[in-house]
Amino acid sequence: MTGLREQVGNTIGGLWSPIVNRISHLRHARMFHPEGLLFSGELEVIAGGPYEQLASQLGRTVLARLSGALRRGGRESLDVLGIGLRMHRGHKLKVHAIATDQDLLFATIRSPFTMGLAPFTTSSHDFFANRYYAVSPFALEGMHRVELRLSPLMRPEHEGSRADKLRAAVAAGEAQFELAARKTLHFGWEPMAKITLTKESELDQETLRFDPYQNGAGIVPVGVINAIRKRVYPASQAARPDHGTPQVEPLAAS
Q1: Taking every pair of C-alpha atoms in the chain, what is the biggest distance, in angstroms?
Q2: Predicted model pTM
C-alpha cells in the first residue's frame, strides 16, 4: 500500500517531470550528474553484523558511476558528488539491468533538509574526502526501515584533478568503500559490505540507466524523495539517447 509520503512524492515528481525532461533534452545529458566515470568492482560481505544476510543478497559484482551533480567540463568547485551503484549476482557486468540487480544511489547530502547546503559542505575536489548518503530510507522485507551510507575506507594521496585522483586510486587498489546501514531514527551504523573498484568500465554511459526502484536484492525505496525519483528519473532518461547496443563486460580478476 502506498503511504502518504509516497503519494506526496509522486505528486511532486509528476509536476517536475516535464521540466526535468526539457532540461535533460537541452543539455543532451542527465539533468544532474551529467558527466561521470564508470568502474567495475567487487563486493565483499562483512560477516557478523545484523545485515550480513542482506549484504549476501546483493551479489559480488559491482558497477559504479562517480560523478559531480552540477558542474561540467572539468569544473570542480561548489559541487555535489554522487556514486551510483549496481550490484549484480553474476560474474559479468551488463549495461542493462536484470531482475535480480540492485541499484543504490548515493550523494554527499545527509538528508533532504541539508540539500541546499551540500555544495558548500562537499569536498568537491576529491571523491575520497566525503561520505555519501542514500538520502531517503528503504524498506527491508520482514525487517525495519533503514538508511544507507557509503564511506571511503582510505584517503589516497594522489595529485591532479578529481578524475585523475580517482583513476590513480583505482589503479593502486585503494578505491575502497564501506556500505553501512542503520535503522531509521537511530544512531550507530552497521557495516554491511566492502566495495572495491577494480578497473574503469568500457560500458556505454549513455545507454546505462540507474533506477532507484531496481530492487532485486529486496532493498525497496520508500519516502518522499524516492517517490519523486520514481517520476523524474524516467523523464530525464527519456530525453537522453539510448545507443541500444547490448554490452557485457567480464569482471576483472581479483
Answers
A1: 51
A2: 0.80
